[in-house]
Amino acid sequence: MIIYLDGRYVPEEEAKVSVFDHGLLYGDGVFEGIRAYNGKIFQLEAHLERLYDSAKTLDLAVPISREEMAGVIRETLRKNNLTDAYIRPIVTRGRGDLGLDPRKCPKATVIVIAVEWGAMYGDLYEKGLSAVTVSVRRTPAEAMPPNVKSLNYLNNILAKIEANYKGGDEAIFFDTNGYVSEGSGDNIFVVKNGEIVTPPTLNNLRGITRLVVLDLARSLGITVREQNLGYYDLYSADEVFVTGTAAEVAPIRVIDGRIIGTGKPGPVTRQLMAGFKRVTETQGTPIA
Ligand code: PMP
Questions:
Q1: What residue ranges carry the coiled-coil annotation (predicted)?
Q2: pLDDT class for 173, splitting at 50, 70, 90?
């Protein structure tokens, strides 16, 4: 496997960063998760925009331009002979001292990893996932904007650990006001009486798949609303599904042991899963 690291394409064994890198010491850095389908990179510009906006919010200067980053991503795919892949660009604060101060880190570290990664949830796309609501709350935007896709994923990892102990495939977060926020790594939607409802993006990550799926739903003539949701809306939904780059569109069949709708992926979710597949196969930035 060939990794891009600070201007060089190196074998995985040589792709090493300093133990003084603040990405390691403090989670000080940003990343993206991007997929390529069929020789094309899906939503590349949207992911690059979020990466650079996340970095800007953290006052982190990315040493290469967006165009250069796009080139590096394509070259990393080519060097690994990948046409269908999961791509992980990472920008850390770089090497500093043991203090917090980012001014002591003269240059950011840039890494791009690309791997083959099929359907994240395997056969659960047919069966549906089991989800559990978790007691750990999504970090409030006042403390850390959820739209900064930072290397500090501990809030999400705590949710995942709780879901693991409770036997769920995915965790559902609430925010500190008691509203439904998102999954540990995906956005959440409910379907009720043929309409799709999803929380606004104040207390969760503004998912790129979320936007693609909302556009797709509208193009299929399905009504879409953004509205705060609570337990009631989850438990009484006809269908629930989550979206994300890694998860794609994944149906949820049970939440906290309660059967959602018929307990099987519902018709609206199925329609969106099929539509999303079509979109990923036709759109995107060519790798070559
Ligand atoms: N929420 C969280 C917390 C995530 O980590 C992700 C994955 N990036 C998402 C939602 C989905 O975002 P996207 O569709 O842009 O991958």
A1: none
A2: very high
3-class SS at 251?
Answer: strand
Q: Is the CB of 185 under 6 A from ligand 1?
A: yes
| Cβ-contact 246, 42 below 8 angstroms | no
Cα–Cα distance measured from residue 34 to residue 240, given in angstroms and rounded to the nearest whole number = 24
Among 170, 223, 218, 220, CA closest to 192: 223
User: DSSP labels for 92-130?
Assistant: E--B--SSS-GGG--S-EEEEEEE----TTTTHHHH-EE
Nearest partner of 32 among 8, 78, 66, 63, judged by Cα: 66
Q: Could you tell me how many residues make up the chain?
A: 288
Looking at residue 157, its amino acid is I
The question of whether 149 is a catalytic residue gets the answer yes
Is the beta carbon of 39 within 6 A of some atom in ligand 1?
A: no
Q: How far is the CA of 107 from the centre of ligand 1 (A)?
A: 27
| pLDDT band for position 61 (cuts 50, 70, 90) | very high
Could you tell me the distance, in angstroms and rounded to a whole number, from the CA of residue 155 to the centre of ligand 1? 14
280 lines ligand 1 (CB under 6 A): no
Q: What phi and psi, each to the nearest 5 degrees, are found at residue 109?
A: -95, 135
Query: Strand (E) positions, the chain?
Result: 2-5, 8-11, 29-31, 34-37, 40-41, 85-92, 109-115, 129-133, 170-174, 180-183, 187-192, 195-198, 224-226, 239-244, 248-255, 258-259, 285-286
Query: How is residue 149 written in tokens?
Result: 């896709």
- Taking only the tens place, the pLDDT of each residue in 97-155 is 999 999 999 999 999 999 999 999 999 999 999 999 999 999 999 999 999 999 999 99
What confidence tier does 79 reach under pLDDT thresholds 50, 70, 90?
very high
Q: Cβ(271)–Cβ(249) under 8 Å?
A: no
